[in-house]
């Protein structure tokens, strides 16, 4: 009788451990990654954009002119002078 119980326990314990380790699909598993894919697809404007690998050639005339003038003007402009403040803490003055 004791041998039967021991054999039953030896067969039953691994079986129960294996059953406990099986993964049951959940609602989250069924839709995992769906929100990411939806967000990614909603941000894609032109689906065929990656197929055209030719470089972009220039800008529209009036836009290009304004951009180049602003770019060239950025080297001439000087930054405005900032004011400095002095703070005195325990007789030590810092700037």
UniProtKB/TrEMBL annotation:
Assigned keywords, A-Z: Signal
Extent of the signal sequence: 1-19
Protein name per its UniProtKB record: Lipoprotein
Record lineage: Bacteria, Pseudomonadati, Thermodesulfobacteriota, Desulfobulbia, Desulfobulbales
């Amino acid at each position: 009788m004791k041998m039967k119980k021991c054999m039953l326990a030896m067969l039953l314990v691994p079986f129960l451990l294996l059953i406990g380790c099986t993964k049951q699909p959940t609602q989250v598993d069924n839709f995992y990654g769906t929100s990411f894919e939806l967000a990614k697809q909603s941000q894609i404007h032109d689906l065929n954009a990656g197929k055209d690998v030719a470089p972009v050639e220039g800008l529209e005339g009036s836009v290009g002119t304004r951009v180049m003038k602003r770019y060239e003007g950025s080297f001439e402009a000087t930054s405005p002078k900032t004011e400095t403040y002095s703070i005195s803490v325990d007789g030590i003055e810092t700037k």
